Amino acid sequence: MSRRLGISLRFRREKSDLPEGESYYVATPRQLMWWKFRKHKLAVVALYVLGVMYLLALFAEFVSPYNPNVRHIRHLYAPSQKIHLYYEGRWHVQPAVYGLKFEIDPVTLREKYYEEKDKTYRLRLFCRGDQYRMWGLFESDIHLLGVEPGGTLFLLGTDRMGRDMLSRIIAGSRISLSIGFIGIILSFIIGLILGGISGYFGGTADLLIQRLIEVMRAFPAIPLWMGLSAALPMTWSPLKVYFAITVILSLLGWVGVARAIRGKFLALREEDFAVAAYLAGASRWRIIYKHLLPSFMSHIIVVLTLRIPHMIMGETALSYLGLGLRPPITSWGVLLKECQNVQDMAHHPWLLLPVLFIILVILSFNFVGDGLRDAADPYAA
Fold first, then answer.
1. Contact at 8 Å (CB) between 37 and 376?
2. Does the structure show a pLDDT above 60 at 320?
3. pLDDT of residue 22
4. Closest Cα to residue 117, out of 102, 101, 95, 105?
5. 101 phi, psi to nearest 5 deg
């Protein structure tokens, strides 16, 4: 009660940013945390960005203009097409693109694309296109954005096989973003069990777990990832490789979570409420899950939020080096593997566009983590 009153009084001093009235005195800790999180404008914007990215990943087949595996053999390494509102000599409300024509430069022998301004193709919403299976459950050919028959819509260009880069980036977001969440859930489970045992029971268990953590932290991350990933059989299916990479990243990412949980258990196990529960006859496991864990769950959420970018970067690094996910699976790391040739990057810079999405997601997670960290500590300045 005293802790809640102290938090409420502090928020009353900042009432210009919070709802008015007596709500401070009856607000739950979650409400106080949300009110303070909203003050972090950058974190709120980042939260919306992540929401949009995960919605794109969830409805990737519908949002993508094309099937990410369909080849357009007449448009290899096609550049990004521009969207025009001024065409046919006047302004239009409905945007359109011009036709693309391909030719070989007789001097440099390089492919060259230019717009055919006499051929205009208007953009359409909810139009028919390539066939796909939504979530692998039902077939459809309706896409959110498309173009009139005969035209092409390569907003981010195409790759060396003529596949639409925007569609492949959206499809790759489903794998890259889901690995972060699934991996952090597994890391949280392992870290909670081992960190809780180490921090609450102590003794020999604490000694052994801490030595194990120190040994694992002594290994360089990238070489260890590479060694474990290289041990995966080449005959495994893409689905097995996906789950194996997720498990590898989880097994190597639980140490930081375990350290954080251990520190909180050490700080709270001797508190009055924990001792009172023990004297009242509660078992140790009940004290852990009913009393100790809820008291610092906000701190753990912050730690997990800041760990997700490490999981995404781990998958990207492994796939870029050829030791992680492999085609036909599409992820941001797999897409970046095509940029290992310097000449390709120089002549076709749009192949590096997945990097922008990786940076955007990682920055968003970091900003959200910063906002949650400030919100989880009501006494911070």
1. no
2. yes
3. 56
4. 101
5. -120, 140
Q: 10 Å Cβ neighbour count for 147?
A: 21
Q: State the Cα angle at 152 between 147 and 157, rounded to 5°.
A: 125
pLDDT for res 378:
53
Decide the pairing of beta strands 111-134 and 90-104: antiparallel
According to the model, what pLDDT value does residue 324 have? 77
Backbone angles phi, psi at 228, to 5 degrees: -70, -40
What the block records as the tokens of 65 is: 């203009």
Alpha-carbon span 166 to 149, nearest angstrom: 19
- In the three-class reduction of DSSP (H, G, I as helix; E, B as strand; rest coil), residue 123 is classed as strand
Domains contained in the chain, CATH given: 81-153 (no CATH), 169-376 (1.10.3720.10)
Q: How many CB atoms lie within 10 A of CB 346?
A: 8
Q: Give, to the nearest 10 degrees, the angle between helix 165-196 and helix 297-320.
A: 130
Residue 363 has pLDDT above 80, yes or no: yes
- With H, G, I as helix, E, B as strand and everything else as coil, classify residue 279: helix
**pLDDT, tens digit (0-9, with 9 covering 90-100), for 110-154:** 778 888 888 899 999 999 988 888 887 888 999 999 999 888 999
Top-confidence residue, 43 or 222:
43
Q: Residue 140: left if φ>0, alpha if ψ -120 to 50, beta else—which one?
A: beta
Q: Which residue has the tokens 């028919």?
A: 128
For the entire predicted model, the pTM comes to 0.83
Sheet-wide strand order for 84-87:
84-87, 90-104, 111-134, 138-147
